[in-house]
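Why show two proteins at once? Because comparison is the fastest way to build intuition. When a single record is shown, students tend to memorize it. When two are placed side by side, the eye starts asking what differs. So, the first record is below.
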Amino acid sequence: MEKQKNVFRRSLDELKSPRALVITAMLIALNLAMDLMGLKIYLTPELRVSVGFVCNASVAMLYGPTVGMMTGFSTDVLGFLLSPNNNAGYFPGYTITAIVGGLFYGLWLYKGRPSIPRCIAAKLSVNIVCNLFLNTLWSAILYQKGFWGLLPGRLFKNLILLPLEVLILWVVANIVLRQFRRVFSDSVSS
């Protein structure tokens, strides 16, 4: 239990660094820009991968679960405010989902090399808890449809997309970490 507290405290301490704040803000902005541009990988018209999750996962990997949760919150609220399609209104359930997603990415990826098993664990946790359970619950509440009626289609979609999302997460996380270390090891030695 004490180890978990330390992870959250270390993550919170990351916010004392202006560099962490700037990089986090840049990745939030990148996520919002990709969402506003509709940047997605379309496998079929119904099956598409939104790649914005790698920005939140990268923040959580670099700065931990606390900063990951704050990033999830900020990205969701700002995304709603900036979206030209926000006529439907704001629903806080999806913000909770974004916060929980940042938590999982931070717990699995923080202070470690983003290996395939860690990326699988992070993405699988997010898919099961956030995509399948929470988002299905929020959709059932919002659209007055049965939870169990929505679940099979969402389960199929998440199973099909999981390998591609894990691969994208692994590739991008390793690139981000390599560049982060290269840039900031140069600035320390200069």
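Second record. Ask yourself what differs from the first in the token line.
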Amino acid sequence: MKINGKLAVVTGASRGIGAATAILLAEKGAQVILVARSKSDLLHVATRIRQAGGIAYIVASDLADAASTRNAAQAILQNHGVPDLLVNNAGAGRWLFAEETPEGEEDVMIALPYLAAFRLCRAFLPGMLSRRSGMILNVNSPASLIPWSGATGYAASRWALRGFTEALRADLHGTGMRVCEVMLGETSSNYFEANPGSYLRLPKLAKFLPLLTPEEAAWYIVKAVRQNRSTYTAPFLLAVNRFFLGLMPGLFKRISWKSDFPHP
């Protein structure tokens, strides 16, 4: 996909990977629509893009809420038209065992990322299909391949997103649309500071992978867009692990489980 002049929607764009991706897409010439809950944070990112000569718009929306997501999609279609690229990056979820998870929190985990991605795709697909072009890119976690102990609802929501991605790819085969999944390793953010104790649950194997910056993660996402990739896994060592998981799933899972956080 040629990014210059395209209309791109990026969710979870107020900080981290989403903000870095929006900034890089704008640098490549895309008109970017930033979607997240915090209007003030979105304004900060949009201002940065505009000061660099890019084009950015903001839509403040709680994508965990169906009505808010529907209103955001309608506003984008009415004010800007059908996007050429949808980057579903918004996500939520603490790393908790099932019995630790407060009632109702599992609903938010499923809503972000899976239901938000589903609802936005449902809103934008009719226009994309009539145009017979466009890309939907879902940003996912390694937990969607091999869950680790102590992150039950989190992993389940990522499996839902991966299943949706695969089903959507089958749906859209031959339509001119592209569906891409970008799977990223651990990326520097304030997640562990905001969720004390979660870092202890990171599998020991994952700690051997290089830590990505949001800017590096954005570079991989934009590379996947430009190359029309169906999947992209980064960093390289994570891609190697994914290969061996597909080759020897039983052995790889046993090795992984030995490095997991033990159930108390």
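One difference worth noting in the second protein: The chain has a mean pLDDT of 91.
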